[in-house]
Amino acid sequence: MEQPLYISQTVVIKNGTYIHNGKELLHSSASDMTGFIKECYKMLGIEYPKFFKMDNLSKLAILAAEKILQGKQQTNTALLFSNAVSSLDFDLKHQQTIVDKEAYYPSPAVFVYTLPNICIGEVSIRHQLKSESAFFISEKYDTGTMFDYTNYLIQQGKADQVLCGWINQLHDAYEIVMYLVDKQGERIHTKEEINKIFN
């Protein structure tokens, strides 16, 4: 018989709010996403200079993962992220650097963020994770796939816990939902419980 799994922590970031385990930690008065990101960074007490060189998708992933992973010594945490727009925000910025033949100057600092899975790498570096990871692109969060993949990774001993996330961002629009699946907790890991986090 398979061991039950649990959703041990959640973070939801949207509409200028940062919510951890159902408790609102920040309701921002910032008028744009850049201001909101700065407020979150300050509220979380992060000291990580590399943060300011990242694309917004990676910044939002770091902010969501920080509250869940801070202080954990767990290096076998798999990361399963997804979104609907891939890295389109930075893809458009990169395209602007190459479209004009007169001002052609592609930036390596921009190009590196033209893959959505870079945000997985940034979270892994920040928390020293050397584990399984995958990034999926789908129109909406695919609860079934993420549920099955998470269970497989833990039940097969490929991960001790799994950090799952919907990290969707384009221009100033963003929605981040992240949750940690573990062998301990109170909230049973089911598709229904995952869907409740999104509502």
Structure, described:
A hairpin with a 2-residue loop joins strand 6 and strand 7 (173-182). Strands 1, 2, 3, 4, 5, 6, 7 and 8 form an eight-stranded mixed sheet that branches. The chain is an alpha+beta fold and 199 residues long. The model has no long low-confidence stretch (mean pLDDT 88). It contains seven helices and eight strands; from the N terminus they run E-E-E-H-H-E-H-H-H-E-H-E-E-E-H. The protein is globular.
Brief characterization of the structure:
By secondary structure, the chain is an alpha+beta fold. The chain contains 7 helices and 8 strands.
Q: Report the uncertain regions.
A: none
Largest beta-sheet details: 8 strands, mixed
Indicate the proportion of strand residues.
25-35%
Order of secondary-structure elements: EEEHHEHHHEHEEEH
Radius of gyration: 17 Å
